[in-house]
Amino acid sequence: MDVLGIDEIIYGADDLPTCRQFFLDWGMQLALESAAELVFESQNGCRVIVRDSADPGLPPAIEAGPTLREVVWGVSSAAVLDKFASRIAALPGYVNDGKRVGCTDPNGLAVRFQVSVKRDVEVECARMNTWNEKNRINQRSPIYERAAPIEVGHVVFFVKDVKACERFYCDNFGFVPSDRYPERGAFLRCADVGGHHDIFLLQPPEARAGLNHVAFTVRDIHEVFGGGMHMSRLGWETQLGPGRHPISSAYFWYFKNPAGGLIEYYADEDQLDAHWEPRDFEPGPTVFAEWAIDGGIDGNTRRQKNAQGPSGKFLTDRAPAGK
């Protein structure tokens, strides 16, 4: 494979102290810190960088306010960088400093490629028991008190021209369509073999550019729940979740991100290969989510937000007859 996934994302934000606390609570490790820049790492070394929005070294923003300024994709070798450089040398915003090559995509976003610096990691994941396969014997499923994201799994943008953006990523860098909203959206993965999507391009009716969300891969559904409840306990606001996407099969939980857009924990997405045939879907609430909890789960009561907390009784308790 040429492109291996996302290596780094860079935000331009207005409130670095709040962003610092948010990403620490999210489960990222603070690798570097200065008055103008925060650098976080996931378990496999994927980087999240937050800089002041006024930093002149940042690429131009695709929308007003805090947002994602740059996406750096990891590739398998220097030969791939050279190949990409020859393809995009004439495109707007072309850069090549010997370590990274890139340009500006049709939506105005700075896109870069480097030889991947992410490392392989081993994590212990929950085993699932189904009717046919009993993979967990004499072992309880885990309960996580918080999340430790493995990597940045995908990015989602509002775009002005979904067809132009799809051609840009597929023709220049070998991305592959997984599924589509005809004329409205394109789910793309980096290569034939991989997770359902690494980038999703969504053209809203008003055809604007902007960040929708950045998604962080966690090990299993239990970590989606544990991470989300941890963020809820700390007062961070849920946008939607937990829930499950029917298109990718992934479990999700979305929060509002002070660095821009939304941010997502997700796990258990479909894995595809060259035999997969893209499908067309009409956008709608039940297409986006098979099920979802509006407002999230309160991390203390373990119930839906604003619902009555547990009383300590069994749910099967019944009042005596005549009471």
TrEMBL record:
GO terms for molecular function: metal ion binding; methylmalonyl-CoA epimerase activity. Residues 298-323 are annotated as: Disordered. Keywords: Metal-binding. This is Glyoxalase. GO terms for biological process: L-methylmalonyl-CoA metabolic process. Residues 151-268 form the VOC domain. InterPro entries: Glyas_Bleomycin-R_OHBP_Dase (IPR029068), Glyas_Fos-R_dOase_dom (IPR004360), MMCE/EMCE_epimerase (IPR051785), VOC_core (IPR037523). It comes from the Bacteria. It comes from Herbaspirillum aquaticum. The keyword Hydrolase does not apply.
